[in-house]
Design a protein that fits this description.
By secondary structure, the chain is α/β, with parallel strands linked by helices. It is 39% helix and 14% strand. The protein contains 12 helices and 14 strands.
Length: 363
């Protein structure tokens, strides 16, 4: 086997548990195939400032209490420290990648790398392949995020994607955009956090109760919070909110680093979320879970649940209380587990083919 030098291009420095783990899992999944892999360490002062502002006020438009600022600052610093453990390339400028190393293959994805509406990474040509020093470009589980397929993809952006030898996406909305713009059906693959092993470093978790329900997300609706609160009271289980303040939870753990987050979800009795990676980590650990959809994450959440047959885990205002109880009491459906395993097989097959291709697939 030829050992390839592979770069992974994604949003790896976001103060976000899912972003950290999908970058790490993608690189480690490639390394497990016997290749060299590094995460392309792009840098931008403008992006950094936007990311850090958001990280210090992450629950906007909900006001952030002044007492939380030191806690969110500690969380940011702990992320900074954790980033050092990633297999990073030499750093280069996001808008001037001329200084980056050359690679046999650059794998773009996952995350919302093609989201033209992203508040600070949107319309960045690098994620569409411009300026990358690579013999071949491949996407794995790339997403357009909340950029709706009905808006279409301008020809200039579509032409950039024609330079990719293989394209895969992680949701139906992204699949539709590629189909309409490029005229072929891209493969659907699993997010790296669901596809590959998650191996957190040891962390001391003695401060966490032996039994609890994990709350991951923010700005939940009143009806959702009320039903979850009542359910937790009936079950006599504390609600612990990780990463963000939710005052209706019993405890707030705002400073957790990504490795603590992974241990925390793995130890939970159930997961309550409105985040894509809240669902992914629950599924990875075969935990009971429920998820409230939001406008921003609708495509990601509905796409994931449609793939695995998990639509009954999505909660709306009309969902009766007994569904909350059932989804957080019953083991994960064997059919969901089977579908995930099947998708792991097809995702592995896609990645193996994509890394071995020698000629352009799209003209």
């Amino acid at each position: 086997m030829t050992v390839l030098k592979i770069g992974v291009l994604t949003f790896h420095r976001c103060i976000n548990y899912g972003s950290y783990w999908q970058a790490r899992c993608m690189a480690e999944g490639i390394m497990a195939r016997g290749h060299e892999a590094t995460i392309l360490d792009h840098d931008s002062q403008q992006v950094n400032l936007a990311e850090w502002r958001c990280a210090l006020q992450p629950v906007l438009p909900t006001a952030v209490p002044k007492t939380d600022y030191p806690l969110y600052r500690e969380k940011v610093l702990r992320f900074f420290n954790t980033f050092k453990s990633l297999p990073l390339s030499p750093r280069f400028q996001l808008d001037d990648p001329a200084g980056m190393e050359e690679y046999d293959v650059v794998v773009v994805g996952s995350d919302e790398v093609w989201n033209l509406s992203h508040p600070w990474f949107g319309q960045c040509p690098l994620f569409y392949g411009d300026g990358l020093e690579a013999k071949r470009l491949v996407s794995y589980a790339a997403s357009f995020g909340n950029y709706d397929a009905s808006w279409g993809l301008e020809p200039a952006w579509a032409e950039k994607l024609r330079n990719f030898t293989s394209i895969s996406v992680r949701d139906e909305n992204s699949q539709t955009i590629i189909r309409n713009a490029l005229g072929f059906e891209p493969e659907m693959v699993l997010d790296p956090c669901l596809q590959f092993p998650i191996r957190p470093d040891d962390r001391n978790m003695d401060h966490v109760p032996k039994a609890y329900i994990a709350v991951y997300g923010h700005n939940f609706s009143e009806y959702y919070a009320r039903e979850v609160r009542e359910l937790a009271t009936r079950k006599n289980l504390p609600l612990i909110s990780i990463g963000y303040r939710n005052d209706w939870a019993d405890e707030q753990w705002l400073t957790a680093d990504p490795h603590e987050f992974a241990h925390f979800i793995a130890g939970a009795a159930g997961v309550v979320t409105n985040f894509f990676h809240g669902c992914v980590f629950a599924l990875h650990n075969t935990k009971p879970f429920i998820c409230e959809t939001s406008t921003y994450r609708r495509h990601k959440l509905q796409g994931l649940m449609a793939k695995i047959g998990g639509e009954s885990h999505l909660i709306t205002e009309d969902t009766p209380a007994e569904v909350y109880d059932a989804r957080l009491s019953e083991p994960l459906s064997p059919e969901i587990t089977k579908r995930i395993n099947d998708l792991r097989n097809t995702s592995n097959a896609y990645l193996d083919r994509a890394l071995s291709l020698k000629q352009l697939q799209f003209a």
